[in-house]
Design a protein that fits this description.
Elements: H1 3-17, H2 26-39, H3 45-54, H4 60-69, H5 80-96, E1 102-105, H6 112-123, E2 131-136, H7 139-147, E3 149-150, H8 161-167, E4 168-171, E5 174-177, H9 179-182, E6 185-189, H10 195-199, E7 204-208, H11 218-230, E8 232-239, E9 253-258, E10 261-266
Parallel strand pairs: 1-2, 1-7, 2-6, 7-8
Antiparallel strand pairs: 3-5, 4-5, 9-10
Helix pairs in contact: 1-3, 5-6
């Protein structure tokens, strides 16, 4: 793939879903594009680009490409301590004040993150006291999440044995989620770069946007953070991945430490 062809594909993909491919990723992107284009019967990547750019009135071809490109790296109990802190430090106090907190797990992939949070709430007898909303750009990922059936890699070494035994059924074929946990999470397809889709979800007390920003450029991250702030309740919090930080973006968010984990809320919220 020529530098010029890489540039126009990278620009189209970033505009469609926010994911950034740098020049160092050219070989990786070429391999993915070539495989996907070949499956669709295209011999030329340039012809495939013209199809995406000029002959895709309903966006179905671009959505199929995004499905082929997005990373579904997730598993149960990933970065568990911040989720425990979230429940203890934010959700329990809201429930104690007779609130029904709304939690959004953004870019949830196949749902292991919101399902883990549901387990932590159920462990405390609070599962029915919180509204859990999970979204992803991939229709296929959402279908899999709703089925509650997962591969063996959804449960990694070092997981909490007691929680896994209580809510997950392991077999040679994979992992099956307890129905009450599966049914506790509402799923929807949402593209995070689509402002209307994000705002249609309503407002949230907690937004989980973990291990998502690493795939975006700073300008796109800043735009996304502005949209997340817009759907955050007063004193609501945003959680990102343990390897991610929002401090360099100059947003109206301040970082606070709770239970050994870091969360972000508007600077003006007490």
């Amino acid at each position: 793939m020529s530098p010029q062809l890489f540039a126009i594909f990278a620009s189209l993909i970033e505009a469609e879903c926010g994911v950034h491919y740098s020049p160092n990723d050219r070989d990786l992107l070429q391999a993915k594009l070539a495989a996907h284009a070949s499956e669709l019967g295209f011999d030329s990547l340039l012809d495939f680009y013209y199809r995406l750019r000029y002959d895709d009135p309903d966006g179905a071809a671009k959505q199929a490409l995004v499905e082929a490109l997005v990373v579904h790296e997730t598993y149960f109990f990933r970065e568990l301590p911040p989720l425990r802190a979230l429940v203890a430090e934010y959700l329990v106090p809201l429930i104690d004040r007779r609130r029904t907190p709304r939690v959004w797990s953004a870019a949830c992939s196949t749902g292991e993150e919101p399902f883990t949070l549901a387990m932590l709430l159920d462990e405390r007898g609070l599962l029915g006291e919180v509204e859990l909303v999970a979204t992803d750009i991939s229709d296929a990922a959402i279908v899999k999440a709703k089925q509650g059936q997962f591969g063996k890699r959804s449960l990694r070494d070092g997981h909490p044995i007691e929680l896994a035994q209580r809510y997950l059924d392991k077999s040679p074929r994979g992992v099956t989620l307890a129905p009450r946990i599966r049914d506790a999470v509402g799923f929807a397809r949402v593209n995070l770069v689509d402002v209307d889709q994000v705002r249609a979800l309503g407002v949230f007390d907690v937004i989980l946007c973990r291990n998502v920003l690493i795939y975006m450029r700073d300008a796109q991250i800043a735009r996304l953070l502005g949209e997340l702030e817009a759907v955050l309740t007063p004193r609501g919090v945003i959680a990102v991945g343990v390897s991610e930080s929002l401090l360099r973006f100059g947003t109206a968010l301040r970082c606070e430490e709770r239970g050994g984990a870091f969360f972000y809320r508007r600077a003006g919220d007490a």
